Amino acid sequence: MMPYYKFDYFSFDFSLVVAFIIGIAFGFALERGGFGNARILAAQFYFYNMRVLKVMFTAIVTAMIGLFYFSWFGWLDLSLVYVSDTYLIPQILGGLILGIGFVIGGYCPGTSIVSASTGRYDGMVYLAGMFFGVFVFGEMFPLIENFYNSSHLGKVTLPKFLGLSHGMVVFLVVLMALGAFALAEWGEKVMTKKLQGDKQ
Amino acid sequence: MKCPIEKLSINKRLALFALVLGIIALFIGNTSSYKINVNAKELALSTVRNQDKISVIQLAEWIIEGKADYVLVDLRDEKSFNEYSIPNAINIKLENILDSGLMRNEKIILFGLDDITSAQAWFILKSANYKYVYILKGGINEWKEKILFPRLVENASQKEKEEFEKIKQISFYFGGIPQVVSGASSSEIYKIQSPTVPKVSPPPAGSIKSIPKKKREGC
User: Are A89 and A150 within 8 A, CB to CB?
Assistant: First the structure.
């Protein structure tokens, strides 16, 4: 039964090897999805290119359906899948900072590593900036520790928060994703026409 | 006639597939976690072989040696836990045992007032696929009796006396009060002594690592 590590199918040391392999596969998928290119990533925020939205929603829907059905088949104990705790206000602020960095730099942490490893200089600079940020955060941590731990809500999941069954949430998220895909396709067509119009 | 699905692009087919799975999910509702699968034979065998019990003396020796490859779980209520517990124990109530963050690959030693609660907890954990679960034989009562307030009757045999000398050392380590008593009044003295349970000074720093904090997971 999954998750394999928590059921002790392999040791901590071997789990690092597994993590390494999954990490390589993740990086490869990001690169093939076009996420090693800052132009494509940043274009999302200006709505010329909706690839980020499409890839992310595809990933979410695939993983969600997989986890749901695996759990239903009895292959996976969902209660053991890690859900990080919610610290509402610090996470909103953190999300905003990450988003601003994303628009300015054109990468998020994972994609900057993909980009740097494919030899892009902007990715490498971004990576250096990220490590500097981590260092500054670490040094500042005693000052912001109280804020960092504030508005703790525990483990919040959509089914619990909305009082819906898991299946209902799966259904709604699938609908939302399909709607977003349709909207993105339509938006891209409109944008392309508009851009062509501007050029002429 | 061509099937309408064949006309769709691969993206649209995948989208349709996701939609179908989403609709089926709607009818499944909740997937149950905590599916219990019990290998009754294996459970029975490990019980018969007494492989799942640890004596208080064994545990005391481990604590003194500074062994830290186990999690010691006190199943009693919070009040009793705060009054006195075995050093380094953590307090988890029976009903929370599956949600307490204990790992399936950890060595878990359970104790309650006696063996009953720990046996129940042992069964729950074993049936939820926890690998290394042990019961502290006799629970906290036996810990008090054998480690904190060991008694030697005056007319004990030589062998019992030797044994007592050893336990005396262990007892002092945990702040206990070993006594030599005459057979008749032994239970009385025990009763007088037992309310003043020693405040246990934590074992020397460094020798035992504190209960490992839950690892932060995720990205």
Answer: yes
Q: Which of B26, B98, B217 sits opposite A167 (nearest CB)?
A: B26
A contacts of B21 (beta carbons < 8 Å): 65, 69, 170, 174
- Over chain A (200 residues), the average pLDDT of each successive run of 10 is 74 88 93 89 85 90 92 80 87 93 89 92 93 94 91 84 89 94 88 75
Domain spans in chain A, listed from the N-terminal domain onward: 12-199
Percent of chain A with pLDDT over 70: 98
CB B108 within 8 A of CB B74: no
Pairing of strands B53-54, B132-136: parallel
Q: Which helix (H) or strand (E) holds A145?
A: helix A121-148
**How many angstroms separate the CA atoms of B170 and B139, rounded?**
17
What's the residue count for chain B? 219
CB A71 to CB B33 under 8 A? Answer: yes
Q: What is the dihedral of CA B68, B74, B79, B83, to 10 degrees?
A: -50
Q: Is the ipTM of this complex over 0.90?
A: no
Interface test with B, best of A168, A172, A188 (most B CBs within 10 A): A168
Closest residue by Cα to residue B202 from B85, B106, B74, B70: B85
How many beta-carbon contacts under 8 Å exist across A and B? 76
For residue B200, the Cα-to-chain-centroid distance in whole angstroms is 20
Q: Which residue of B has its CA nearest to A3?
A: B104
* pTM of the model as a whole: 0.62
Task: Show the domains of chain B with their CATH numbers.
Answer: 40-139 (3.40.250.10), 149-193 (no CATH)
Contact A110, A41 (CB under 8 A): no
Burial A17-43 (b: 16+ CB within 10 A, else e): eeeeeeeeebbeebbebebbbbebbbb
The CA distance from B39 to A96, in Å, is 50
Structure tokens at A160: 């619990």
* Interface contact A181, partner B, CB < 8 A: yes
Average pLDDT score over residue span B52-71: 86
